[in-house]
Amino acid sequence: MPEDFADRHVARWRDHWIEIPFDDRIEAATVRLSKIARYFRDTTEAAAIEVGLQLFEYQTLHMLMIRDTPGHASPRALAEDLDVSPAGMTGRLDALEKAGYIKRTPSATDRRSVNIEATTAGVAIWRRAMALRGRAEVDLLNSLSERELATFNRLLKKLTTTIEHQE
């Protein structure tokens, strides 16, 4: 297999960490995971731009759509999920409402609250961006055989369950 960025990174940094343990394999895996994460961030942003959304608009619609209650949420729940301040969430929702992608409706249980609902236009543009994003994911992961992809998923699951147990 040809040399990649992680191989060059490890070779360059290996001798700089004399007083700190440096494991070539762990460093290479970390660098590769970071590069893959950056690829997914970049292709997500490109998908949003291609359909005419700003990244924050896509992220907000995405969080609204992937909930246990798809397309429905309170502004507070969305703000918490996106780690955005209430004021920041208001600005996001204002932009999405102005574009016709969400609508605010009064809460049936609390007159001080509103509910956020994705509109037909909001769902449609989110799905268009998701299709583009999905194509980029498939393009990357199709470089693995079926067996390699199964192994890769098993190993990733092992890592994510380790993280979940630490939280």
What keywords describe this structure?
single chain, about 170 residues, mainly alpha, 3-stranded antiparallel β-sheet, elongated
Description:
The protein is mainly alpha-helical. Strands 1-3-2 form a three-stranded antiparallel beta sheet. It has a single domain, classed as Arc Repressor Mutant, subunit A. The protein is elongated, with a radius of gyration of 21 Å.
Instruction: Provide the succession of SSEs.
Output: HHHEHHEEHH
What is the annotated CATH architecture?
A: Orthogonal Bundle
Helix/strand-derived category reads mainly alpha
Low-confidence stretches: none
Largest beta sheet: what is the strand line-up? 1-3-2
The number of strands is 3
Count of helical regions: 7
**Please, what is the CATH homologous superfamily?**
Winged helix-like DNA-binding domain superfamily/Winged helix DNA-binding domain
Q: What is the CATH topology? A: Arc Repressor Mutant, subunit A
Per CATH, the class reads Mainly Alpha
What fraction, in percent, of the residue positions are helical? 55-70%
The general outline is elongated
How far apart, in Å, are the first and last alpha carbons?
36 Å
The structural domain count equals 1
Q: Strand count, sense and closure of the main sheet?
A: 3 strands, antiparallel
Proportion of residues in extended strands? 5-15%
- Gyration radius (Cα, Å) is 21 Å
